[in-house]
Write a structure and sequence with these properties.
With 997 residues, this protein is an alpha/beta fold. It contains 44 helices and 25 strands. A 6-stranded antiparallel sheet has the order 5-6-11-8-9-10. Strands 16-13-15-14-17-18 form a 6-stranded antiparallel sheet, sandwiched between helices. A 4-stranded mixed sheet has the order 1-2-4-3, with helices on one face. Strand 8 and strand 9 (183-186) form a beta hairpin. It is globular and about 95 Å long. The relative contact order is 0.08.
Length: 997
């Protein structure tokens, strides 16, 4: 059973929502979908909140708490929602600070201070501070998306706590709101509290410090990473009565942080990295004290299991960069110059070389910045790559205990024995060993009552073990629900009573995040996967082979680490543009999980809440590459839409844009008429195209028609099939012609498939999976002789190449020829650089490249594009811009999709293109990318095939193609084409009008 906060069952949720909506200018969301969205975080726990408030201003926070107080509703705060101990889920009203309250109010670089709002992402502050060679010291692995409010709530640490300490060490003052409505400024010293009731609060806290001071001094572990419990030690006279620091780490159980004044520290601008290899994690940990004598700014550990996890999931890592061993100490040094940093690193190396007994196995100093980044990428993947779907669940709850650094090795040996005694497996070991914090993830069974009993037994035994070492249950992630019940095993029952008194000073009614830290829920309640959890059983179009054929298991891949909330990379462009949780990969995956669970979202495939969340998914597939557990939201969306619209009419764009391969074939008979109709105001209105958009223009002649009537191809032994995708064939045949010119010059005998074929890429965006499957079956059947003969297929459109590598295998998993076709399909750049011994002539040009999302999903570093550009000798830059925002037909849709499309482009792509000089060539292989760039940036981008063609022609190696003369019958054929084209346009308008009615 789940424990519940007092009086929750008597609340009138509807009346509470109405009053909040009346008094709060921000967003008030009490619907089933919003509540389901916030029922999970990155922990093992699940609790459905009463409702959600997304405040726009500090006044909204004050008003919302006031309304909740009037009705006795409990409240809690949330930032990035990456809590690992259950502190950011509760049966209470949740206030999400991360969408709007994210400003740097002031940065005083001379005074080494920053004033911030709680929803600000840590990396935004670090970026601003680095302009002055400063930083905010605590830097957890989630630095790209964690909010400073969350860090204050959790007392976060990170890699560089060695030089910076924990968050509580870096706070000057806090602007806080109590449940009773008092707004206070808290700092340290004689006037540590300012605001209503300050004198009474000061007296209460000083009295508490006087009564419990000796027990705090005796009972608090004297270690660098004591995060568990409340910071009562900060109230002691020797700590300067630091009330602000005492409130850090209280996990919104005492107050809400409305703003903070934080300390900044100098950021070492030059760094060196040394790795020491050992035979086991405990052997590495044994040597922490001697390495610390060399004063590193970071001392981390990770083991071979973490590397294996990342490789097993298909992430590009470079284990060859690591020195020998099964576990490593990662030692970072900093200095004001590279020479200074290197000298410190070399001093460590020299000392290690002199050791008579070689305790380490191998050692390496890194000087190449790219290699340094790649090594750090392995280590920072610890939390995300603790889970390996289908192999290890990577459950948190006991993942960050801390002991004295000099005792790490012995503790790890004892802990490993404890794990084996309980029949469990560690996913991997990693952590901040310089301060004694050690991360692990275990494979608990939450699906049975017996498994949950074993979960409790292990946590109790592990808490006793840490207590015997004088350590902390949490060295980084807080107590929440997972460890709060165990605090008496660490501190003793008397100090736990003192914690309750401390909470009562601030929150006497117990309405602030109840059941967390103080007077906690039992640790084995509210578990997300506990009985009676039983997901729906559904049949699917896709095979979901990597998830055992289960859509429910696919939805459960997400475990909440929130990498999709990063503002960099490709993943989740709609989240990047809106800061809206429901539009993150995590938000969508969690709603699908709730849909499959069925108790909060009971409509199954008909769920409007899920449909709304998926509507702004651009199907960019960035998550397939960048999500640490490879959530594939584009596939999940297509599957959902297929069922959602089964036996129902789809939106009109599905017929106008999703079936573009059919309309294009008809329109090619009279392209000018089709263009006139499609580009007209009524045409766009009926098709659902945004009035601001200019639909792509049908070409006067399809590429396939040109190919059929050209002069015979050059004789060549290397036979290939060039895939004439719908976009190249009917809209931009010049690209196909350029590709033929290049491939034939490179020695290929170019063929096209027999008949009119299309991979059906647009069908997936609208869930038209029955038609999509038929298109794939038709392709495999038509190409079967060539497939079995091993003929390679070269694609020009990245999204179409990706269909052969992704959807084809997911749709036809048991067709051996489909598997062969997938392996025999290559992108244009990949084929030229990997399968031909040929180089184009040099081209003197400056080039910027926008990578297509599906291409980046398959090949993040775009290495084949870079290799071809290197061979061309151009001065190029591959833009780090993420999604262009057009995403197939997404950006053509009228309404919110168009707005989001433009907002995504404005994130990084359009600013980058504005900075590029007018003579810089823009290369974009994606049809949608070229359309977005042309329409919003006013540039005319090239496909890379056209760039190579330009190099060939400027060098004189090729010239304008010679066309074969078409055989007679022109006027009659033209008349027939016009009639057919007009019919196609009329059919399109009529179908759209019918749907509109």
């Amino acid at each position: 059973m789940s424990a519940r906060p007092h009086r929750v069952e008597t609340l009138d949720r509807r009346e509470l929502a109405r009053e909040l909506s009346r008094r709060v200018s921000g967003e008030v969301r009490f619907g089933d979908g919003s509540r389901a969205l916030y029922a999970n975080d990155a922990s093992s726990y699940r609790q459905v909140p009463i409702g959600v408030v997304v405040p726009r201003t500090v006044d909204d926070v004050i008003a919302a708490v006031g309304v909740c107080r009037e009705r006795g509703a409990p409240v809690f705060a949330r930032g990035a929602g990456t809590g690992l101990a259950g502190q950011t889920v509760n049966e209470a009203v949740v206030l999400d600070f991360s969408k709007y309250l994210r400003r740097i109010v002031e940065l005083d670089h001379e005074g080494l201070r920053a004033r911030i709002e709680p929803g600000l992402v840590l990396d935004r502050l670090r970026e601003r501070a680095e302009e002055h060679d400063l930083t905010f010291g605590p830097d957890p692995a989630t630095h790209s998306r964690c909010t400073l409010g969350g860090m204050l709530g959790n007392n976060s640490c990170g890699v560089h706590s060695i030089i910076a300490g924990v968050t509580a060490d870096n706070v000057e003052s806090l602007d806080v709101l109590l449940y009773d409505g008092a707004r206070l400024r808290v700092s340290r010293g004689e006037e540590a509290i300012q605001g209503p009731g300050a004198a009474e609060l000061t007296a209460q806290l000083q009295g508490l410090a006087d009564r419990w001071g000796d027990r705090v001094r005796a009972g608090f572990p004297q270690i660098p990473r004591r995060i568990s419990g409340y910071n009562l030690d900060r109230l002691l006279p020797e700590a300067g009565f630091d009330v602000a620091a005492a409130l850090v780490g209280t996990e919104s159980t005492c107050c809400f942080v409305l703003g903070a004044d934080l300390r900044l520290i100098p950021s070492p601008q030059h760094r060196s990295l040394v790795l020491l290899g050992y035979d086991a994690p405990w052997s590495a940990a044994d040597h922490v004290p001697e390495v610390m004598e060399f004063e590193p700014i970071g001392l981390e550990t990770f083991d071979q299991r973490l590397v294996d996890n990342e490789l097993r999931k298909g992430f590009r890592r470079h284990p060859e960069l690591l020195p020998g061993g099964e576990a490593w100490l990662l030692v970072e040094f900093g200095g004001d110059s590279k020479e200074e940093a290197d000298a410190k690193a070399e001093r460590l190396q020299a000392a290690m070389r002199k050791k008579r007994s070689k305790d380490y196995l191998d050692m390496k100093l890194y000087e190449d910045p790219d290699e340094v980044a790649q090594v750090w990428e392995i280590r920072e993947g610890g939390v995300g790559h603790s889970k390996v779907p289908g192999e290890h669940p990577g459950w948190p709850s006991w993942e960050d205990a801390a002991v004295a650094p000099e005792r790490c090795g012995k503790y790890l040996r004892d802990f490993d024995r404890l794990v084996k005694d309980h029949g469990l497996q560690v996913s991997c070991y990693f952590g901040h060993v310089g301060h004694g914090c050690l991360h692990t993830r275990l494979d608990w069974d939450f699906s049975t009552r017996d498994g949950i009993r074993r979960y409790r037994a292990f946590l109790e035994a592990a808490a006793d073990l840490v207590g015997s070492y004088g350590g902390s249950l949490s060295g980084e992630h807080g107590d929440g629900q997972a460890r709060a019940e165990l605090l008496d095993r660490m501190f003793g029952p008397e100090l736990v009573t003192a914690f309750s008194e401390f909470k009562a000073v601030w929150d006497p009614e117990g309405r602030m995040n109840p059941g967390k830290v103080s007077d906690p829920y039992p640790l084995d309640t509210n578990l997300r996967m506990a009985p009676p959890y039983r997901p729906r059983q559904v049949k699917t179009y896709f095979s979901f082979g990597e998830d055992g054929g289960s859509f429910a298991d696919a939805a459960e891949r997400c475990f909440g680490v929130g990498a999709c909330r990063d503002q960099e990379g490709v993943m989740c462009p709609s989240y990047q543009a809106t800061f809206e949780e429901r539009y993150s990969t995590r938000g969508r995956a969690r709603l699908l999980f709730e849909m499959m669970r069925g108790d909060q979202l009971s409509d199954g495939w008909r769920s409007k809440e899920v449909l709304h969340a998926l509507d702004l998914c651009l199907s960019c597939k960035g998550c397939r590459n960048e999500c640490p557990v490879r959530v594939d939201m584009a596939t999940y969306k297509a599957e959902f839409l297929a069922h959602h619209y089964e036996h129902r009419l789809r939106p009109r764009q599905a017929y106008a844009l999703g079936l573009i391969m059919y309309w294009a074939r008809l329109a090619s008979r009279a392209p000018r008429i089709a263009n006139a109709v499609a580009g007209s105001g009524p045409g766009k209105l009926l098709a659902g195209v945004a009035p601001q958009r200019t639909p792509p223009q049908f070409a006067d002649e399809p590429f396939t028609s040109w190919f059929a009537r050209r002069e015979g191809p050059l004789r060549a032994s290397r036979r290939i099939i060039l895939w004439p995708d719908t976009f190249t064939n009917y809209f931009e045949p010049r690209i196909g012609r350029a590709a033929v010119e290049v491939l034939e010059t490179a020695g290929c005998a170019v063929e096209l498939p027999r008949g009119a074929l299309c991979c059906g890429r647009p069908l997936y965006d609208f869930g038209m999976l029955k038609i999509a499957r038929r298109r794939l079956e038709e392709i495999v059947e038509r190409l079967r002789p060539e497939i079995r003969a091993g003929v390679h297929v070269v694609g020009l459109e990245p999204s179409c190449v990706d269909v052969f590598r992704d959807e084809l295998l997911n749709m036809l998993p048991h067709d051996e020829d489909a598997k062969r076709l997938s392996k025999q399909t290559f992108s244009f750049c990949e084929y030229l650089t990997e399968h031909l011994e040929w180089s184009p002539p040099a081209l003197a040009a400056r080039v910027v490249v926008q990578g297509h999302c599906h291409h980046r999903a398959a090949e993040k570093d775009m290495r084949h594009d870079r290799a071809l550009l290197d061979r061309l000798g151009v001065d190029y830059e591959v833009l780090d811009t993420g999604c262009c925002g057009m995403a197939g037909s997404f950006g053509y849709h009228a309404g919110e999709r168009y707005d989001v499309s433009v907002a995504v482009a404005e994130q990084r792509l359009l600013p980058a293109l504005r900075e590029a000089s007018e003579d810089t060539l823009v290369v974009a292989d994606g049809f949608s990318c070229r359309g977005q760039i042309s329409q919003l940036a006013g540039r005319e981008p090239l496909h890379i095939a056209e760039l190579v063609q330009r190099a060939l022609r400027e060098s004189g190696r090729t010239g304008p193609e010679t066309l074969a003369t078409a055989n007679g019958g022109g006027s009659r054929a033209g008349m027939a084409a016009a009639v057919a084209g007009a019919g196609a346009a009329t059919a399109l308008v009529a179908l759209a009008a019918r749907h509109r009615r």
